[in-house]
Amino acid sequence: MKAIALFSGGLDSILAVKLIQLQDIDVLGVTFETPFFNAGKALAAADKIGLNLRVVDITEDHLVMLRAPRYGYGKNLNPCIDCHAMMLRKAGEFMASWNADFLVTGEVLGQRPMSQTKQSLHVVAKYSGYPDFILRPLSAKLLPVTKPEREGMVDRNRLYDIQGRGRHRQMEAAREFGIGDYSPPAGGCLLTDPMFAKRLKELFSHNDFSIPSIHLLKAGRHFRINDCTKVIVGRNQGDNGLIEQYAQDADCILRAADYPGPTTLLPGGGTEAERHVAASLCVLYSDAPKGEAVRLNCLRQGQTVMIEATSADKTQAAQWII
Ligand code: SF4
User: Computed over its alpha carbons, how large is the radius of gyration of the chain?
Assistant: First the structure.
């Protein structure tokens, strides 16, 4: 017998795996990636507990869902019910090709106010298309009997009845299983971050759904200089690196030629006037003396040209910032 476990790498998902493995059932983990969350934590935890883990990129489908989630958003731009259902649907689709009999998640009844009420868990399971196959070992005794329990694949009596936001039972179980080192339960999804959500909403409102544009929201200061054009200015080396990583051939990358300063990106390359605005923002955040005409390298489609600009006005820049 084999189960596919949706594995985030948090303590709840580790315990869910352990409870099923204890019943001599083979468990294969699966974790998902998008620009909003990655597999890092899951990979590290799977390595520690010796779980075979598959990483699946669901960016394209997730983006389609994110634009109009059937069950709406949480506090920020997090469509948790639709997102959970999508992950379970994907895992359900893998059951046949991965020779698995049922699905396992570390969800705990009542742990999250919106997405883990009894009603939400029911909706998620139903919307996934695999309601009878989804076993939540940490709260199983409080939930309807599922196919693996009914058909004797899993002994329901050896599962848990945890509910609520307290972590006491999970920590006790972690001690019992000798799990001493685990990551905190929440965090890691950018859609729950208010600043990222604000930038993403702004991007979507300009009909930009491209994957590089979304990755670029993680870096730098963002300015909307007119309805069609953005400028992104790095704040540090990390930002500069990320901007270079996601810049496209048609984009324009600007750097001051004679002073330390940020990498600045003008997606799409812009018009000559827009390149000068981008250059003036680049100068504003560089070490160049204000008021001086500064030379900048402007790289686009493999060619570098030199342009000159003076610093943008701070008040004007503040009006453009997203
Ligand atoms: S927090 Fe993010 S990853 Fe988690 S269910 Fe919500 S949208 Fe999906």
Answer: 24
Q: Is the CB of 159 under 6 A from ligand 1?
A: no
The alpha carbon of 180 is separated from its chain's Cα centroid by a whole number of angstroms, namely: 26
> Between the CA atoms of 61, 63, 64 and 65, what dihedral angle is there, to the nearest 10 degrees?
90
Task: Compute, in angstroms, the gap from residue 241 CA to the centroid of ligand 1.
Answer: 27
In tens digits, what is the pLDDT along the chain, a chain of 322 residues?
A: 999 999 999 999 999 999 999 999 999 999 999 999 999 999 999 999 999 999 999 999 999 999 999 999 999 999 999 999 999 999 999 999 999 999 999 999 998 877 788 999 999 999 999 999 999 999 999 999 999 999 999 999 999 999 999 999 999 999 999 998 777 665 689 999 999 999 999 999 999 999 999 999 999 999 999 999 999 999 999 999 999 999 999 999 999 999 999 999 999 999 999 999 999 999 999 999 988 999 999 999 999 999 999 999 999 999 999 9
2-189 adopts what CATH topology?
Answer: Rossmann fold (3.40.50)
**How far is the C-alpha of 271 from the C-alpha of 280, rounded, in Å?**
14
> Is 260 strand, coil or helix?
coil
Q: Is the Cβ–Cβ distance between 125 and 156 less than 8 Å?
A: no
- The CA distances from residue 112 to 21, 53, 95, 199, in Å, are 26, 25, 27, 25
Distance CA 173, CA 263 (A): 49
190 lines ligand 1 (CB under 6 A): no
What separation in Å is there between the alpha carbon of 83 and the centre of ligand 1? 6
Domains of the chain: which residue ranges?
2-189, 193-320
Are the C-beta atoms of 110 and 163 separated by less than 8 Å?
A: yes
Helix intervals (H) in the chain? 11-21, 40-49, 59-67, 80-97, 118-128, 147-150, 168-177, 194-205, 211-216, 237-246, 272-284, 314-320
